[in-house]
Structure formats: C-alpha cells, structure tokens
Amino acid sequence: MMSGDYHYIWQDPDWPVWRYDLGTLAGLLADVSRAQGMLLGRMVDIGVELRGQACLAALTEDVLRTSEIEGEVLNVASVRSSIARRLGVEIGALAPVDRHTEGVVEMVLDATARCQEPVSRERLLGWHAALFPTGYSGLARVRVGAWRDDAGGPMQVVSGAMGRQRVHFEAPPAHGLEAEMARFLAWMETPSGDAPLLKAGLAHLWFVTLHPFEDGNGRIARAVGDLLLARADGSPQRFYSLSAQIQRERKTYYEILERTQRGPLDVTEWLAWFLGALQRAVDLAQGTLDQVLAKARFWTRWSGVAMNVRQVAMLNRLLDGFEGKLTSSKWASLAKCSSDTALRDISELLAHGVLKRSGAGGRSTSYDLMD
Prior knowledge:
By secondary structure, the chain is mainly alpha-helical. It has 14 helices and 6 strands. A hairpin with a 7-residue loop joins strand 5 and strand 6.
C-alpha cells in the first residue's frame, strides 16, 4: 500500500502535522476518562498502604509485559522485589535482582514517578543505557546511549525467514534524527492543544515511527506514553498497565501500527484503537484492585495465627495467583527447605484452617487456600 507518491508516513510533505477527527474520538475520550475517574475514586477510598500494593501490582505487570512484547521474559519475583524496594512497599523477603531487570524497572519508574519533569535528549539516552547495561542485546552489540547511525543499512522492521523477509516498516534516515528528535521533544514539552490522552497516543506513534535507537524503541515508546498518561491522570502512581493490554492485543497492535505508518497523517484510526486499549486496561485494573482488597481481607482474617517467614511467603504466592497445584514438594523447592519442614509448615496451616487439601491424596495431594 502506498499513500500518494510515498511509502511511509514520515515521507508525507506535511510530516509531522498530525490530523484526526475529534468528533469521532469524543465518545471514546469520554468513556476512558469516566473509567479512569471511577478507578482513581476507588483508590482514594482504600488508604495509603493498599494503594501502594495496587501500584506495585500494576507496575510489576507493566515491566513484565513491556519486556514480553519484545520477546524477553523477566523473573516475576525479581521484578516485584525491585519495584517494592523502590516504592517502600513491604512484601516480606526480597528476591535477588539482576542488572537487566533493574534497568527496565528504573526506566518505568523514572517515567512515571518523575512524570512532571521535562523529557530531554539526555533523559531518553539514560533510559536506553539502563535497558542495555552490558552494551549487548542478546549476542549483538548495541550502540548504547546514542541515536542509531544506520551503519548497517536503513532501520527496518522485518519478519520472516532469511531470504523470505517481509519489510513492515522503514524508519527515517539516521542523519536527520537529531533534528527529528529535537522537534519531537519540543512538542512533548509544549502545550499543543491536543487532549492529554490523545497526546499520549500521538507520542507513542511518533516515537516508534522515528525509531531513534538500534534496539529498545518499543519499550521506550511505551514509557514515553506512560509518562504522558501519568501527567494526564495528575498522579505519578500507576494503577493500570497499557503495556499489558498491548501484549494481550499484540497482533492487532502491530497490524494497526503498520497500517498507520504506511498511511496518511490522519491518525484517527490509530487513536481510536489506542483509546479503546486504554479503556480495556483501566477496566481490567478494577479486577487487580479487587485482588488487592481480597488479599488484605485474607491477612486481616488470619492476623491472629502465628506464622513463620516461609508460611507467609508461600501464602502470598498463592494469593498472587500461583500457577499449577501447590504440593509439599513444590513448597520445599520454593521455600528452600526440607520435605519434612515443608510438611510441617503445611500441617500447621491445615490445622488452623488456613489451607485445605485438594487432589486425590498421597503423592498427588495438593493444597489450596480455604475459601
């Protein structure tokens, strides 16, 4: 598909003068704003400690999913521990954290906790350096903390096996990036007349279209969008994750992104999808809040039962959504204790009525939280 006599949106003579039909988007904007207001209203009512837990849950999911979109699977416990330490949220024992996980967490938290501070060239380069602390992306050396130079040819987004590759998008030439990024950053920090939520959608599209880095563009584009969403919410605390919603709708996201980048500067369709995904993310956050409240009620109910550190940690794993069946052997493995100790921990919780048996018995016996 071509638009006029050019292939990509950045080749349009009017680039980057964005156009969209506000009348078409007005209803979606109102729906999203209403959903955000309902969620933030609930957060005001639950108190500081539970807001911290809800923020921890949202940010953990955000860090995990923004990396997962790029094919990177981070350790859940490490991500959660890294964020909890920075937020000052008590979660019991902290898991070890590697440099790469720390870098992603630092970027996401810097974008949201410092959302009112200007986004500068140096700040973006710092985010990029945090994503690649070793200077490598996998086995490939990456030009870290600097714009790409296109030494290996044009920056292209491709798929398919070698020899049968399909080019989905080609970014603007590297020699013009300094001016392009300066224009983008000036727009970011200048009132543009766009509704704040639309500005977040436009910033995401604009950044990922410029593709200024050799790697990490998607994660940084999502961080830029989150920063503007935090400004729009008027709060540095995050209670929903757009990155998680993009991961859930990844196929549609890439399809509409490619269609938009090969089309005209009227980006109404992109913004409509962005607002729809944002509302679905906010709606799902209501369920996350329900889980946080259920967890708080659980610990209030059993506050009179003496438990050791292992028991508290394992019950929190179950409350956070333990995958599969919890058996005594899994308990021993996860809690790093002997089988006898695991059985003793479990037996005590069964006696107090905190846990119940499920499964067929014997070696296949598993355990669930009491309803």
